[in-house]
Amino acid sequence: MADNVLVMAETWRGGISDATFELLALGRELADGFGGKLEVFLAGDGVSGLVGELGAADSVYLAEAPALAEPEAGGRSRLVAEVIETSGPRCVLVALTNVSWDLAGLLPARIGAPLVNFCRNVAVAGDEIEATCVLYGGKMEATVKVSAAPVVFGVLPGARSADAGRSAGSPEVKDLAVDGAQAAVAFLRYVEPEAGDVDITQQDTLVSVGRGLQGAANVDLAEELAGLLGGAVCGSRPAIDQGWLPLSRQVGKSGVTVKPRLYFALGISGAPEHLEGMRDSELIIAINTDPDAPIFNAAHFGSTEDLLEVVPALIERAAEVKGG
Amino acid sequence: MKILVLLKMVPDIVEELEVAADGRSLDLDFLRLIVNESDDHALEEALILKERHGGTVTAVALEAPDVDDVLFTALAKGADRAVKIEGGGDNLSTRRAAGVLAGTLPGAGDLLPADLILTGCQAIDDLDGFLAPALAQALGLPYVGLVGRVAPQDGKALVAKEFAGGVLGEYEVSLPAVIGVQGAEKPPRYVPVAKVRAAMKSAEIETVAAAPGPEVPSFDIEEMLKPQPADRAEMIEGDPEAVAARICEILSERGLL
């Protein structure tokens, strides 16, 4: 049993997330590499009907209880620890999404296992497992080899395609007993964001701004460019945290995922949390004075000139082209 | 309300990062260290809570280059005490740092019990773990991460956790608890250098000797390098005018202008 791979499935608001299917695709590779089975831990309330979507797996540990209806890591980590105790997997895969983030941190601490974090790839390497980890905001990558078992991998969104892990089937279901222990952390409710004036997921062109924009006053410049190109302005987390743009314009981990025809990244470094929200844009043009900014690893075209000089020049030329 | 805020130093990634001669770590010689961004948000949230509900805020950090500046800045911003833990070791991994904190905090004067332990929800060098959940587990306290707002209420706290699309999940947490803060309600406050200098003259950083914590699992980095993507961006050369001209061409070719 020791060469099995255990995937932490995540459900949110009624469905299984893409991140789960990405982990299933990766987990299948690892399980096949070790000649083991691919197992899934699925917790929730009334989620047994979702098991059929997990056809990529050989078996599913199913925990159902009202207290498990929403993401909460304390209760889940206790249950997973029991599963790991009895099944002894070689490794555990957890997605680094907002839904599973807390579990990625808590589970390895609870079971005393190593966590290999920020993985963009995990592969079998002989008797060991090799992971490539994205560090320092995407500016460095570390290669790590682990032989300890079990080991938990925190996997970045996008490590595999979700479609590669999506298949219908009827994996064996193993029901877990859930005790009614009083939880120290209890979910109360969701608070929906205020609707924005613009839905940035529906735009063909997005002019996205980050810390490098240097100040709220320069948002006007981005607005002018977006206006000329028939698009809207959005931003990375620092631009929203600084109050330059409303939350409804945030792209990335706690914001939205966008796939416009054109994505201008102005003064955005390109941390993994941002890239996951925009990397599938058709055309990405990045302007950042730091030649090592990770955004250039995702962009199609780039410039290290000062955006406060490039953008006015671009506005002028674009206006001429449109006018002419 | 007694609040501990854990602050950690990380490399300033605005600067150029280089791999050290061993090929498996960051060259720290010329690096500037700054406070971890989400830790700064944790401090801001703690100061907001103090302003709103009273109580004390104690900033705690492990010994590191330039950490005194960060602790004095915390005092200048409104923290009541600043504590530096000495002798825990250099360049600790996140799990080891959590171990040192778990070993040291319970015996360090009156730091514990605290109602809330706030720290950032992640750091750019969290290769082997996240601090908040690792510490919560070691201290046997509840934990919630990716939190943007904390409101104490009758021995509990309501915390708002961030989900995708700007959705917040409200959770009720028994206190004491460890909270991983993603972003405070407001951007971290600015404090003038003169005020930090004044804090350096009038206030003191307390020091505490590190006590060993629980053993933590570890692994080695085989290799560290700058990412080498196969399809990196085509860089547009020339002055801003030339760059703007080329971008216009690219857009026109694709019917985007």
Overall description:
The complex is a heterodimer of chains A (324) and B (257). Chain A is α/β, with parallel strands linked by helices and 324 residues long. Chain A has seven helices and 17 strands. In chain A, the strands form three sheets. A nine-stranded mixed sheet of chain A has the order 9-8-7-10-6-1-4-5-11. Chain A is elongated and about 70 Å long. Chain B is α/β, with parallel strands linked by helices. In chain B, the strands form two sheets. Chain B has a nine-stranded mixed sheet, with helices on both faces. In chain B, strands 2-3 form a two-stranded antiparallel ribbon. In chain B, strand 8 and strand 9 form a beta hairpin. In chain B, helix 2 (67-77) packs across helix 5 and helix 3 runs parallel beside helix 4. Chain B starts with a strand and ends with a helix. Classes of the chains: A alpha/beta (324), B alpha/beta (257).
Quick one: biggest sheet of chain B? 9 strands, mixed
On the 0 to 100 scale, the average pLDDT of chain B is 96
Strand order of the largest sheet of chain B: 9-8-7-10-6-1-4-5-11
Q: Give the overall shape of chain A, derived from the CA principal axes.
A: elongated
Largest interface: A-B, 96 and 83 residues
Give me the oligomer status: heterodimer
* Annotation, overall tally of beta strands of chain B: 13
Shape of chain B: globular
Run of helices and strands of chain B: EEEHEHEHEHEEEEHEEEH
Q: How widely separated are the two ends of chain A? A: 70 Å
pLDDT averaged residue by residue of chain A: 96
Percent helix among the residues of chain A? 10-25%
Distance between the termini of chain B: 57 Å
Number of strands of chain A: 17
Structural class of chain B: alpha/beta
Helix percent band of chain B: 25-40%
